[in-house]
Q: What sequence folds into this?
């Protein structure tokens, strides 16, 4: 690893200046050789790429003994056990790959990420992903306050131990949360709030995420709102960009459906001025994708982005913000008004119900909000609980198993159709019945002690 | 019947659990939802506390065979839970299709049924048979 290496944020900024969208896989394998092959192929893909080490579920939940046992058994895992393989193994698999034109990020999903951050810095890396809320509420039952404390320490650790001259980077997962049925205002707000949290704990380069949802027009509005609020709320001198995630909910099952949804996300990224796109493959609905499938997805997305023209200027979002901007701004300001120190205000906001993630079973989530897909295909609030934003209360059918499944499969069904309408079409998705009741109680029984 | 529903130890997915809670409730069962990331010890505790008629484990993250094995072994190690009906299902491995040797290992360890992600009718029937007090053929 002697080659010159630009920091993650600087690489994305340089690519944006050159008019190129950075594309990145979600890729992780237990076997270091396979992991290296995946990175090599990512690097060699016909696209401007960043590499990914996606960490396995045992490491994510902090069960390093289980990760070790699985590695000892030669079991296939759903990711790379970065805190189990010795640092030398991870260094060797990265050897000669990292340079100015190819940064690598570690993606995990851990509410207690210190071990992962220690492992990634030991391997010479300095870019990762997550957040005190977004890697807690969707990822198990770790109490939110514990996650907040752990994330504060992890950020400080990363900021303090990176190699000299490097600018460590953290991406918020706030724009995804549970992946589906959460109206964009809350996604945008959490992305902004988590990036502010990272900055409060010493990080100087961040990215704000947004996951493609059900409606291209609403999504474009959301990404623009995110760019605008980032510019307003992040302190001057903090490097930032927006990263778009190709659809994170139930994915189309057919190759044509999966590919078209990916292409739509690439065009959305370009149209809305995102600097980076994390792709999904044709295997998404079925199983962990192969290296081959990942490379194909990267090249498909890059081609679709290139055809869509040059990315919109990365700064200075245009147009008036609309609904999403207004909602997100209200949520961000409400939380900051509680306490400027986000390690206090984020948990307090959830305690008071000022933030409330729809359909989230986590014990620290109020669980009184509900999202739905309206007949035009936009995400709406069926209930907002105690959040300072309005619900669209005209639609409130009881939540049924079939109704939930229809809402979850809304996007997949539309893209899997053999003869789709205009693929970015705003119009006429097969009517997904908005079947959501304001406040059924879903909380897990207080049976088992939180982990 | 009273059903204990939970995700497996390393699995944080919850849409499967939200769905199954509704599905089982609509079939007339009483469902106690434990949420995601239930490790073997927590599952055994919950079985003692709630005295369910059956346990339904759901796993989609690809570690289901391994995590399920640990869970079933833990339950079967306890005499009071040795005969409790246990079914596991979802996307259990990372290969995208059922893996027979892995499924066989789960059955050997005392799991009563190992189902795929499309086997909701089989789940309904599995529970229906037990409601009537019968035993599967
Ligand atoms: C949404 C989603 C997420 C969200 C989850 C948020 C949350 N809290 O739930 C987020 C983004 C956080 C996430 C994270 C991860 N995910 Co995920 N996720 C999905 C996705 C896109 C949709 C799942 C969904 O919502 N389904 C809707 C529900 C209703 O359907 P379902 O879960 O399939 O359940 C149905 C059936 O399986 C069946 N079923 C389920 N359980 C049972 C039990 C019984 C007894 C029976 C009979 C039937 C049954 O009934 C349900 C109704 O039909 C799927 C891919 C897809 N399907 O498109 C991947 C997927 C499940 N995720 C996957 C993985 C690996 C992960 C991660 C480990 C990250 C990673 N490495 O990629 C982490 C999980 C970390 C952890 N500790 O477990 C893999 C699993 C791979 C495998 N099994 O081979 C999938 C398939 C994606 C992929 N191709 O890689 N994920």
A:
């Amino acid at each position: 690893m002697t080659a010159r290496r630009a920091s993650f944020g600087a690489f994305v900024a340089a690519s944006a200046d050159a008019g190129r969208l950075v594309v990145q896989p979600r890729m992780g394998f237990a076997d270091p050789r396979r992991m290296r092959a995946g990175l090599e192929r990512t690097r060699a893909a016909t696209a401007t790429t960043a590499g990914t080490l996606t960490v396995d579920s045992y490491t994510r939940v902090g069960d390093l003994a289980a990760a070790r046992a699985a590695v000892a058994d030669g079991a296939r895992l759903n990711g790379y056990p970065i805190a189990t393989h010795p640092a030398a193994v991870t260094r060797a698999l990265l050897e000669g790959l990292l340079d100015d034109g190819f940064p690598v990020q570690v993606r995990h999903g851990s509410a207690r990420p210190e071990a992962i951050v220690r492992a990634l810095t030991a391997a010479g890396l300095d870019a990762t992903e997550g957040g005190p809320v977004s890697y807690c509420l969707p990822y198990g039952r770790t109490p939110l306050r514990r996650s907040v404390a752990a994330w504060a320490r992890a950020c400080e650790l990363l900021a303090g131990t990176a190699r000299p001259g490097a600018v460590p980077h953290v991406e918020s997962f706030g724009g995804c949360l549970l992946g589906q049925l959460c109206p964009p205002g809350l996604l945008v707000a959490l992305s902004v709030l988590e990036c502010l949290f990272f900055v409060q704990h010493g990080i100087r380069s961040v990215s704000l995420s947004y996951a493609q949802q059900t409606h291209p027009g609403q999504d474009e509005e959301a990404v623009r709102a995110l760019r605008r609020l980032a510019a307003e709320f992040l302190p001057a001198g903090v490097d930032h960009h927006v990263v778009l995630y190709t659809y994170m909910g139930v994915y189309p099952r057919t190759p044509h459906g999966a590919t078209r949804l990916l292409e739509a996300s690439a065009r959305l990224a370009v149209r809305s001025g995102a600097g980076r796109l994390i792709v999904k493959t044709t295997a998404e609905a079925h199983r962990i994708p192969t290296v081959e499938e990942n490379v194909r997805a990267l090249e498909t997305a890059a081609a679709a982005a290139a055809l869509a023209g040059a990315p919109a200027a990365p700064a200075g979002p245009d147009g008036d913000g609309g609904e999403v901007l207004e909602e997100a701004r209200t949520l961000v300001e409400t939380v900051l008004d509680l306490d400027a120190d986000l390690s206090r205000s984020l948990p307090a906001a959830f305690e008071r119900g000022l933030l409330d993630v729809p359909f989230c079973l986590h014990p620290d989530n109020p669980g009184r909000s509900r999202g739905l897909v309206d007949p035009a295909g936009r995400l709406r609030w069926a209930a907002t609980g105690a959040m300072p934003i309005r619900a669209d209360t005209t639609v409130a059918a009881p939540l049924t198993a079939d109704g939930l499944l229809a809402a979850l499969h809304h996007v997949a069904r539309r893209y899997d159709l053999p003869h789709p309408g205009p693929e970015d079409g705003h119009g006429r998705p097969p009517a997904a019945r908005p079947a959501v009741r304001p406040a059924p109680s879903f909380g897990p029984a207080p049976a088992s002690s939180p982990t | 019947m009273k059903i204990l529903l939970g995700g497996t130890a390393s699995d944080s997915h919850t849409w499967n659990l939200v769905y199954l809670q509704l599905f089982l409730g609509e079939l007339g069962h009483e469902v106690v939802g434990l949420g995601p990331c239930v490790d073997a010890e927590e599952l055994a505790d919950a079985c003692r506390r709630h005295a369910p008629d059956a346990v339904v484990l759901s796993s989609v993250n690809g570690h289901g065979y391994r995590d399920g094995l640990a869970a079933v072994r833990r339950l079967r190690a306890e005499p009071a839970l040795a005969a409790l009906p246990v079914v596991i299902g979802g996307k259990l491995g990372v290969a995208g299709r059922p893996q027979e040797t892995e499924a066989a290992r789960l059955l050997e360890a005392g799991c009563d049924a190992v189902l795929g992600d499309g086997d909701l009718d089989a789940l309904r029937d599995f529970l229906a048979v037990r409601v009537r007090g019968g035993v599967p053929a």
